[in-house]
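A note on notation is needed here, since sequence and fold are reported together in a single record. The reader may check this reading against the record printed directly beneath this paragraph.
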Amino acid sequence: MPSAPSRDLETFPNPQPGRDYTIRIRVPEFTCLCPKTGQPDFAELTLEYVPAALCVELKALKMYVWSFRDEGAFHEAVTNRILTDLVEVAAPRFMRLTADFNVRGGIYTRVVAEHRAPGWEPPPPVQLP
């Protein structure tokens, strides 16, 4: 197999560090295991962030997400762990991770976790006519 799961996240220099802009990444095939039953849990992750000096490298992110496939995790714990790991490596101005888990026992779960760098304030929204 040419590639394998990895917890090694990578970054690259932000090409526009002086500008606030948003990067949105959709990961529609996240899987982990239910820690109670061992059955697979499926989710769509949406990562939104305003980079500072670094951006998240996508292939490394793909391998990182893959590394959870055989790990038992509660939805809340795995969402917060992923956000913590991404913040640690990329140190963004702002980052939000939304995890939309498919139905389990008749219940859908959405977990939203956020990070905001100290002192960073979002620019005011622009209202166009």
